[in-house]
Amino acid sequence: RAQYILRIARQFKMQSSAISNISDWRKPYAERNQLEDLLHSIPAPAPYTVWLRWFEQGTAIIKETNSPNEPNQMALATATRDGCPSVRYVLLKGHDERGFYFYTNYSSRKGKELAENPRASLCQYWPELNRSIRIEGRVERTSAENSEAYFRSRPLPSQIGAAVSPQSQVVPSRDFLEDRRRELDARVSQGESVARPESWGGYCVLPTSYEFWQGQRDRLHDRVRFRRRQDLTEEEMRMAQPAEGDWVCERLAP
Q: 219 catalytic, yes or no?
């Protein structure tokens, strides 16, 4: 028994050492030159076109590899009026050349921060391709009609979850939430529809900047940024390459 305990202790010590020594963790990236074409085409394509290509490729590889990742997951960063940041994962639920759409409770922490400071940053990452995209921009609420249409498109359990959850507020227990759900479930089973809460709806992030990141070996990664022409100084414009519309394209050092 003493030898068994000693062996377990040694194994635990080895595992703890391996876990704590994270400074040595490295994952080699394969060379990819997907961004070079952007810098050699004049004008470069509009950033939404590049985003759509990468999003479609990321979705395809996730399906091919049966990855547990969701292709439309994205980190959303917001900040208070005085600049205190917060970040969380949300799901992208729509996109077009105008912007990127997600839905949430307006009374949640992100909703309150966006009311104070209507700017946000999105980050998408596809580890299967060693790629990420950062998008920064202004944020606007979608129309009530848009929010209603999306709410009605959700599965009934998701509608119920949104209706009963006072998102980001302190609640006394899990039972509190389960009780509210059971109560609404019972009313729905009797024919009552789920009303979209007035505090629940959509946002659209209107991009002012896109950054495409491709992992490379030796950590000499590729970074290409698109910004609006009017946002650059004359000096910055000398290093920029024209892109479609009012966008310009820049290479960033890693």
A: yes
Nearest by Cα to 204 from 81, 104, 69: 104
Provide the 8-state DSSP code for 243.
B
pLDDT in tens, 38-50: 777 778 899 999 9
- Enter the DSSP assignment of 140: E
**Beta strands 119-126 and 100-105, pairing class:** unpaired
For helices 156-164 and 144-153, what crossing angle results, to 10°?
Answer: 130
Count the domains in the chain.
1
**12 located within any domain:** no
* pLDDT for 17: 57
First CA to last CA across the chain, in angstroms?
Answer: 54
- Please tell me which residue in 219, 225, 228, 238 is annotated as part of the active site: 219
- pTM (two decimals): 0.86
**Host domain of residue 45:** 31-143+200-251
Helices (H), the chain: 2-20, 36-40, 47-64, 109-116, 144-153, 156-164, 174-189, 234-239
Dmax over CA atoms of the chain, in Å, equals 76
pLDDT at residue 4, as a whole number? 56
Encoded amino acid at 20, one letter: S
Output the domain CATH number for residue 75. Answer: 2.30.110.10
Reply yes or no on whether the pLDDT at 8 is more than 80. no
Residue 168 in domain: no
Tokens of 214: 């491709």
Share of the chain above pLDDT 90, in %: 78
